C-alpha cells in the first residue's frame, strides 16, 4: 500500500503543468486578447473556454476540448453559448487566482 502523504505529494506535483498552462492563459487574456477586442462568436470567449477546460480537465483533455472549440470558431459559425463540459467529482479546487490545488479532503 502507498503512503497517503506520498500519493498526495505526487498528485500535487502532477498539477504543475496544469497550473503553468493556467498562468500562460491568464497572461494571454490580460495582454494579447484585449488587442483583438470582442470578436469571438461564442460565449465564453475561446480563451476563457480554454482556461476553464484546462482547469477542469487537465492539460491533455482541456487542450483537446479547446482545439475542438477553436476549429468550430470561424467567421461562418453561428456562435452562441458554448460552455466546456463540467467535471462533477473533482479532487481539486480553484484558488481565487484560478490555479488548481488539491482539495483538503482529497
UniProtKB/TrEMBL annotation:
Keyword check for Transmembrane helix: no
InterPro entries linked: Membr_insert_effic_factor_YidD
Keyword annotations from UniProtKB, A to Z: Cell membrane, Membrane
SMART domains: Haemolytic
Entry keyword Membrane: yes
Intracellular or extracellular location(s): Cell membrane
GO CC, one annotated term: plasma membrane
Function: Could be involved in insertion of integral membrane proteins into the membrane.
Family named by the database record: Belongs to the UPF0161 family.
Protein name: Putative membrane protein insertion efficiency factor
Amino acid at each position: 500500500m502507498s503512503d497517503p502523504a506520498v500519493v498526495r505529494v505526487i498528485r500535487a506535483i502532477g498539477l504543475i503543468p496544469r497550473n503553468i498552462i493556467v498562468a500562460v492563459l491568464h497572461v494571454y487574456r490580460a495582454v494579447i486578447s484585449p488587442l483583438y477586442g470582442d470578436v469571438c462568436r461564442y460565449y465564453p470567449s475561446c480563451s476563457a473556454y480554454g482556461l476553464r477546460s484546462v482547469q477542469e480537465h487537465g492539460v491533455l483533455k482541456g487542450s483537446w476540448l479547446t482545439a475542438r472549440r477553436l476549429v468550430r470558431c470561424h467567421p461562418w459559425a453561428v456562435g452562441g453559448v458554448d460552455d466546456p463540459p463540467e467535471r462533477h467529482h473533482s479532487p481539486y479546487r480553484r484558488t481565487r487566482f484560478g490555479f488548481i490545488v488539491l482539495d483538503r479532503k482529497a
